[in-house]
Design brief:
Elements: E1 6-19, E2 22-35, E3 39-43, H1 50-57, E4 66-74, E5 77-78, H2 84-90, E6 95-98, H3 102-105, H4 112-123, H5 128-141, H6 147-150, H7 160-172, E7 178-182, H8 190-207, E8 210-215, H9 218-224, E9 227-232, E10 235-241, H10 242-247, H11 252-258, H12 266-270, E11 308-311, E12 314-316, H13 321-331
Helix pairs in contact: 4-5, 4-7, 5-7, 7-8
The chain binds adenosine-5'-diphosphate and magnesium ion.
C-alpha cells in the first residue's frame, strides 16, 4: 500500500442548507486530503460543521434542500458530479459511514446477520451460503463472538458497543477504501469507547482502509489518529500529524482547545480567557470566523487566509501564527 497516495481530496467545499428559517451556511470552504491507509481526524466543537462535511462527501443531502460547491475527489474521480446511481454503487462498497447512534440505523425486527448480509447482497453476487460464511467472518473480525450465536440475534439483545460493532461490520463488509466514522464512540462509555477505537485501528491495520474519524474529543484524536484537522465554524483552521498538532499547535483556536501554550508564555497566558461561543452565520463569512474570540485578531483577519505550511505537512490558516510560533521558539 502506498501510504502517500491521496485517496480523498476535498477542496473548497461549501455546504448551504435550506431550512424553513432561512439558509444555514454550515460549511464555508473546507479543504483536506486523506492518504491511503491513514486515520485522519476532524476535531471541533459541536455545531462547527463536521457532520455536514462528511454527509456532503457521501452526498447524503437532498439536492433540493442543499447547495453544495467545491470538489470531492476519490481516486481522482469527482464525486460531486457523478450520477446518483454511480454514487449508490460507491456507498457501502468504496466509502462507508457509521454514526453516533447505531440503534437508529439498525432494524429492530431483523437479525443482525441478515442486516449485515443485506449489504453484501446489494454489492456482491455471492450465493446465500457464501454470504453466510462472509457474515460469520465479519462478526469474527468485529469480535462479536461466538459468531454462530450472534448471527441469529436481534439488535435489542446487544449493548450499545455491540450494536456499533454491527454497524462497523456492515461498513467494512465490502472492503471499502475509506470508512467515515462520525463520532462513533460519543454515545458509549469510556472503556467501550477505547475498545471500539482499538477495533477501528485493528481493521485499518489488517485491511489497509483509510479512516476519517470525526470527533469533538482530543482524547480520541490522541488515541487513534495519524493526522488531524481542526475545524471551527465551517472552516478547517489547522492540519498536522497528531504528534505535531498536540505538541506544537499553531492556530489560536487549537491552542485554546488544547490549553497547552508553551511554558515560556504561561504567565501572560493566564490573562487571556476567550469568551463567547462559535458564531452562526446569516451570510457566508469572508474573514476568519475565530476573529471575534481571538486575542490576536487585527485588521488583516477580515479575509480568511490560505493555509500556510509552517512546517512540512503542518498547515495553519492564521496570519499571526508564524510570528507567534517564532516568539514561542525564542522563549524556550
Ligand atoms: N439538516 C440540517 N438542516 C439545517 N441545518 C443543519 C442541518 N444539519 C446541521 N445543520 C446546522 O449546520 C451546522 C453544522 O452542523 P453539524 O455539521 O451537524 O455540526 P457538528 O460539527 O456538531 O457535526 C449547525 O449550525 C447545525 O445546526
Ligand atoms: Mg456531528
Amino acid at each position: 500500500m502506498d501510504k502517500e497516495r491521496i485517496l480523498l481530496a476535498v477542496k473548497d467545499l461549501t455546504v448551504d442548507l435550506m431550512t424553513s428559517k432561512g439558509i444555514v451556511y454550515a460549511v464555508n470552504g473546507v479543504s483536506f486530503a486523506i492518504r491511503s491507509g491513514e486515520i485522519h481526524g476532524i476535531v471541533g466543537e459541536s455545531g462547527c460543521g463536521k457532520s455536514v462535511t462528511v454527509k456532503a462527501v457521501m452526498r447524503l443531502f437532498e439536492r433540493k434542500k442543499s447547495r453544495i460547491a467545491g470538489s470531492v475527489k476519490m481516486g481522482g474521480k469527482e464525486l460531486l458530479n457523478i450520477p446518483e446511481s454511480e454514487m449508490r454503487r460507491l456507498r457501502g462498497a468504496k466509502i462507508s459511514i457509521i454514526f453516533q447512534e447505531p440503534a437508529t440505523f439498525l432494524s429492530p425486527l431483523e437479525k443482525i446477520g441478515d442486516q449485515i448480509g443485506e449489504i453484501l447482497k446489494n454489492h456482491l453476487p455471492d450465493t446465500a451460503s457464501a454470504r453466510r460464511e462472509k457474515v460469520l467472518s465479519l462478526l469474527e473480525q468485529v469480535k462479536l463472538l461466538p459468531a454462530e450465536k450472534r448471527i441469529g440475534e436481534y439488535p435489542f439483545e446487544l449493548s450499545g458497543g455491540q450494536q456499533q460493532r454491527v454497524m462497523i461490520a456492515q461498513a467494512v463488509a465490502c472492503g471499502p477504501e475509506l470508512l467515515i466514522a462520525d463520532e462513533p464512540t460519543t454515545a458509549l462509555d469510556v472503556t467501550i469507547q477505547a475498545q471500539i477505537l482499538e477495533l477501528l485501528r485493528d481493521l485499518r491495520d489488517k485491511t489497509g482502509m483509510a479512516v476519517l474519524l470525526i470527533t469533538h474529543n482530543f482524547g480520541v484524536v490522541a488515541e487513534i489518529c495519524d493526522r488531524v484537522s481542526v475545524m471551527y465554524a465551517g472552516k478547517i483552521v489547522e492540519t498536522a500529524d497528531v504528534k505535531t498538532l498536540l505538541s506544537s499547535p499553531a492556530h489560536p483556536y487549537t491552542r485554546h482547545l488544547l490549553d497547552c501554550v508553551p511554558r515560556g508564555r504561561a504567565r501572560e497566558n493566564k490573562l487571556r480567557t476567550i469568551g463567547g461561543s462559535p458564531p452562526r452565520f446569516r451570510e457566508r463569512p469572508a474573514g476568519c470566523p475565530f476573529a471575534s474570540r481571538c486575542f490576536l485578531a487585527g485588521e488583516t483577519c477580515g479575509v480568511f487566509p490560505e493555509p500556510d505550511e509552517i512546517d512540512p505537512g503542518h498547515t495553519v490558516s492564521c496570519r499571526h501564527a508564524r510570528r507567534e510560533i517564532s516568539r514561542d521558539r525564542g522563549a524556550l
